[in-house]
Write a structure and sequence with these properties.
It is a single chain. The chain folds into two domains: about 210 residues, Alpha-Beta Complex (Spore Coat Polysaccharide Biosynthesis Protein SpsA, Chain A); about 110 residues, no CATH class. α8 runs antiparallel to α9 and α9 crosses α13. The longest helix has 19 residues. The radius of gyration is 20 Å and the shape is globular. About 50% of the residues lie in helices and about 20% in strands.
Length: about 325
């Protein structure tokens, strides 16, 4: 079997049929679609069972709720394909995705094939991709466009060699946020050959109803952990890693405006920007782009009020005018 497609399913009855049909319409023969129901309470299970009964390419697995990481880890164990890819039940893909990635994987002998994607929000759609390249050996400058455009983190724009994944033993952390980021950064320790292409097939549909409503106190700790992990697995891109660190810290500050009071936020900011890790990162950070330059400048100021006001503005853009925020980024 050529490809196993792993789909976590949780209460996705509204979008599930479109998502499944887009995958079954792919032009590649000899693939399996593994639908893993993560304890859905709506009609998702019925929809999955119906597809499995009517199409021998579809496998249906039901499990107790454990989150998307637990589903993907189970899928890696269950997969029968030579290669693995992932998809989410509220997204869909254009025809040709499987055939293109499979052909490129064979052609380049890559452990991972990475494509661009379409990002959809409220009726708008934008292309998110980067130029074609092969990355192997030390991970330096070539990793930056993948990381800065969020093309490295997500599992659904990639094709993985199953043998490589299983040999590494790397799994997605369960019960954590940003688990996909941790997964891919950990994979870099095993030096996969990565083939990158600008072609876009996958439509990542952002649902306004699923946007964060409350600050997660674990966010800052985990973001800083991921940022340090990035520096640990790359070579020669320390200025970008420092930028990624301060941007990650700012992201946590921004989310505090969801449910924290002004005094609490300012106290938190004051404490964090006084930490040596933040001070060092602000001094060393460099990355191109007007918005990124503003982030670096604000961080370098070390001024609590300035950082507070900047993050409050970003909060308004991110949660009240999300389309504009994505465009600015």
């Amino acid at each position: 079997m050529k490809i196993s497609v792993i789909v976590p399913v949780f209460n996705g009855e509204k979008t599930l049929k479109q998502s499944i049909n887009s995958m079954l319409a792919q032009g590649l023969g000899d693939f399996e679609l593994i639908l893993i129901d993560d304890g859905s309470t709506d009609k998702s299970g019925e929809i999955c069972r119906s597809f499995a009964q009517n199409d021998n390419r579809v496998r249906y697995i039901k499990k107790e709720n454990g989150g998307p990481s637990s589903v993907r880890n189970l899928g890696i164990k269950e997969a029968k394909g030579e290669y693995i890819t992932f998809a989410d039940c509220d997204d869909y893909m254009d025809n040709g995705a499987f055939a293109f990635m499979y052909e490129k994987a064979l052609e380049t002998k890559a452990d991972m094939v990475v494509c661009g994607c379409f990002i959809e929000l409220g009726g708008s759609k934008r292309v998110n991709n980067c130029e074609e390249m092969i990355i192997e050996g030390e991970y330096g400058e070539k990793i930056i466009p993948l990381k800065s455009k969020d093309l490295l983190d997500a599992p659904w724009n990639k094709l993985y060699k199953t043998e490589f994944l299983r040999k590494t033993g790397v799994t997605m952390p369960e019960g954590e946020i940003f688990e996909d980021t941790a997964f891919h950064l950990e994979l870099l320790r095993h030096q996969p050959k990565i083939a990158v292409y600008s072609e876009c097939f996958y439509h990542y549909v952002q649902n306004m109803g699923s946007i964060t409503k409350k600050y997660n106190p674990d966010k800052l700790t985990l973001l800083k952990k991921r940022a340090k992990q990035l520096k640990d697995v790359t070579v020669g891109i320390e200025p970008y890693c420092d930028f990624y660190y301060i941007k990650s810290v700012f992201s946590a500050f921004i989310d505090m405006f969801l449910s924290c009071k002004k005094a609490e936020i300012k106290q938190f900011i004051s404490k964090e920007i006084g930490e040596q890790d933040f001070i060092n990162a602000a001094k060393g950070a460099r990355f191109q782009g007007r918005y990124n330059s503003v982030i670096i400048s604000v961080a370098k100021s070390g001024n609590c009020n300035r950082i507070y006001n900047f993050c409050k503005l970003c909060y308004i853009l991110k949660y009240k005018a999300r389309k504009l925020f994505i465009k600015v980024r």
